[in-house]
Specification:
Blueprint (H helix, E strand, L loop, with lengths): L7 H8 L3 E6 L11 E8 L2 H13 L4 E4 L5 E3 L4 E8 L4 E4 L5 E5 L4 H10 L2 E2 L11 H7 L2 E2 L2 E2 H4 E8 L2 E6 L19 E9 L1 E2 L2 H18 L4 E2 L12 H7 L6 E2 L2 E3 L7 E3 L5 H19 L8 E3 L5
Parallel strand pairs: 2-5, 3-5, 4-19
Antiparallel strand pairs: 1-2, 6-7, 7-13, 8-14, 9-10, 11-12, 11-13, 15-18, 16-17, 17-18
């Protein structure tokens, strides 16, 4: 965590109106929870993203990149690092016998999946209910309905140091909801990604997406949440363990462990991040005490969590 004050005047020179001070991050997260960013910089293209990262690195300023704001819990105290809000959302399709789609890291994954359907292209149906952006999905190997990024990704463009490199999927070291990036084996920023597709028909792809969406609605709760809170332990399900621990419906403040699915924590309005974290710790301790299983977070804690 940075201890020195941010050079606001210098950042203003570099970023102008794209930079804002003391901005609440709650509206930029799927859970609608989180304190303020001291500085928020909005980028709208991958070139702007790469440039912003390079400027901040040259100034030795710490930063985080926020995309769709799913799978993150931002502290009530907010974020002292510079926050880059990634709105780089360009998408390009390539047709032919082996169709593919290229998307900038700020593109919403679910929207991309629906766009492929309208073009009669198959391969991303599983992503139609996945929250968040392409960048976050590539970083964490997002998945659903027996599909994930590792199965669909051809390659991704990364910013490593001051160099832009194209990595094939094999280099990412993908595992269940993890990658070499998430394991901090390499310090890189996802700029864009290319996914392989298959020729199909709009009707066939749309029906499959509708089936997945119906299943998601039947098994996962509505309302503001971060998505799945914990990774599924090997051979079991986090939601099942939380339910078996009799924790569904447990509330702290306006935060609740969903009565529909135990692996979702719901914001019932003006929920504090500290209340969500208290529920996290309660679930981890109770499941460990009752079943000897240590639940590992799927989400990431961001910001100032100091006492």
């Amino acid at each position: 965590m940075m201890t020195t004050a941010l050079p606001i005047d210098v950042l203003r020179v570099h970023f102008g109106d794209a930079m804002k001070e003391n901005v609440s991050l709650a509206p930029y997260t799927s859970a609608r929870i989180g304190g303020p960013a001291d500085v928020l910089i909005t980028v709208k293209t991958v070139d702007e993203l790469a440039k912003a990262v390079q400027i901040l690195r040259e100034r030795r300023l710490e930063f985080i990149i926020l995309g769709g704001g799913s799978n993150v819990l931002i502290s009530d105290k907010g974020v002292r690092e510079v926050v880059i809000l990634n709105k780089a959302k360009a998408v390009r399709f390539e047709n032919g016998d082996q169709p593919k789609v290229w998307a900038e890291a700020g593109a919403t994954f679910s929207q991309l999946a629906h766009r492929t359907a309208t073009k009669g292209l198959s391969g991303l149906e599983w992503a139609a209910t996945v929250p968040g952006t392409i960048g976050g999905a590539v970083y964490g190997n997002a998945g659903a309905f027996n599909g994930d990024v590792s199965q669909s990704l051809l390659n991704a463009e990364l910013l490593i140091g001051d160099q832009r490199e194209i990595w094939p999927v094999e280099q990412f070291g993908y595992g269940y909801r993890t990658s070499a990036l998430k394991r901090n084996q390499i310090n890189a920023i996802v700029l864009s990604a290319t996914f392989s597709l298959k020729n199909a028909t709009r009707e066939v792809v749309s029906v499959k997406i509708e089936q997945f969406s119906a299943r998601r609605k039947a098994t996962q709760p509505p309302g503001a949440s971060m998505g799945s809170m914990f990774k599924n332990p090997e051979g079991d399900y986090a939601g099942r363990l939380i339910e078996a621990a009799d924790l569904k419906g447990t509330r702290i403040g306006n935060a609740e462990i969903s009565t529909v699915h135990g692996n979702f924590f719901i914001n019932h309005g003006k929920t504090k991040a500290s209340d969500i974290r208290a529920l996290i710790e309660l679930a981890q301790k109770t499941v460990a005490d009752k079943f000897g299983v240590n639940l590992e977070l799927e989400i990431e804690l961001i910001g100032d969590w100091s006492a």
